[in-house]
Amino acid sequence: MRVSVIGAGLGGLCLAQGLRGAGIEADVYERDPAITARFQGYRLVLSPVGFEALRGCLPLRWHPLLDAIVGDAYAGQLILDPQLNQIGELGPGRTGIVIDRQVLRHLLLTGLTVRTGAALTGYDVLDDGKAEARFAHGAPTTADLLVGADGVGSAVRAVLSPQTTATDTGTRFVIGRTPLTERFAALEPAFGSKIAGDEVSLMLGAMRFRTPPKQAAEELAPEVTLPDIRDYVRWAMLLPPNGSLGAPTAQEAVLSRMEGWHPDLRALIEQADPDNSTLLPIRVVEPRERWTPGPVTLLGDAIHATSPTGGNGANTALRDADLLRRCLIEAVERRQDLLGAVGDYERQMFEYGGEAVRHSLAALPAFVPNPERRIRGRGRRRAASGVRSGQVSGAGRPGGEPPDSQVAVER
């Protein structure tokens, strides 16, 4: 069996690794001109399901390395005001596992064949039941199964299921990262919490590696090359519906909305890496009508893109990869035919993928700025404050984000 994976995101790469481990040929095609064309280094919160799906697709010999490069998250789930006073709670704190997307992507790329600059222009189902993919540049490729793992704007989905389209929620968010210095470590209670301003919300999350990734790879899996990344704080600001930057850079746009905020919060944005701060729209794709069964299917954001406020986008894509891997192994072992295996995958994926999208949308209103709602509730919330203005250390519970936290601005 041969599988063509369109898209070198986490879901597509995880699937390719899982198929490779099962002895199934898998080639990956990426429209970007190079693997490093776009920075993809923000932290992710992995649920137990997502983490086990990832482990299931990786070689056993890499499991110690994976365990070494993740971090632990602890969630206070607090609501703080811009002076770091506690004004409410989002829910009970829970624990989770965090991993850096760029580090994980380099791990998943190891040993795979990836053709970059391969923008899909369409595909055909041939008389023998195989799928032939066509690209803007380069020769077409034929495979027993074509998997569209090419994101919210999926070119595969446009052909396979044109009635399934992305919906823009109107909400925007700016995301970036800042080295975790001693000063910013004092923001611990704010990690995993929502900082609620009058017109914006800010979320912070720490990425602390158990072992520096580059060092871990050299010691535990020399065939793997991981980037030399150190601990950092991932921050994200949600803007009002249809909000735009209104400033030359993403960094300046955030600072312009933080007038009078706690000095440590402003310094966190001021000292961020400007090259890795960006404005993103929140768009969703909800799986609805099933397409006609055939040698083409979809995975990850291409079929169930979630709002990042659900914290379940990457987890669901990894779950897809592991499920499709297991279904295709059944086909290879002749326990069922290929179309039956793909059908089993799609039935399950549509159910939990649709639920993931709905969960993420239900979480979104809690983080979309609403000045009128804040004005009405401000007096009551201030009365509940348990943290003095300007004090960070010792306030609330340890920070971080739970696996499926509504605070988790993760994709």
Automatic annotation (TrEMBL):
<feature type="domain" description="FAD-binding">
    <location>
        <begin position="103"/>
        <end position="338"/>
    </location>
</feature>
<dbReference type="InterPro" id="IPR002938">
    <property type="entry name" value="FAD-bd"/>
</dbReference>
<feature type="region of interest" description="Disordered">
    <location>
        <begin position="377"/>
        <end position="411"/>
    </location>
</feature>
<dbReference type="InterPro" id="IPR036188">
    <property type="entry name" value="FAD/NAD-bd_sf"/>
</dbReference>
<protein>
    <submittedName>
        <fullName>2-polyprenyl-6-methoxyphenol hydroxylase-like FAD-dependent oxidoreductase</fullName>
    </submittedName>
</protein>
<keyword id="KW-0560">Oxidoreductase</keyword>
<keyword id="KW-0274">FAD</keyword>
<keyword id="KW-0285">Flavoprotein</keyword>
<keyword id="KW-0503">Monooxygenase</keyword>
<dbReference type="Pfam" id="PF13450">
    <property type="entry name" value="NAD_binding_8"/>
</dbReference>
<dbReference type="Pfam" id="PF01494">
    <property type="entry name" value="FAD_binding_3"/>
</dbReference>
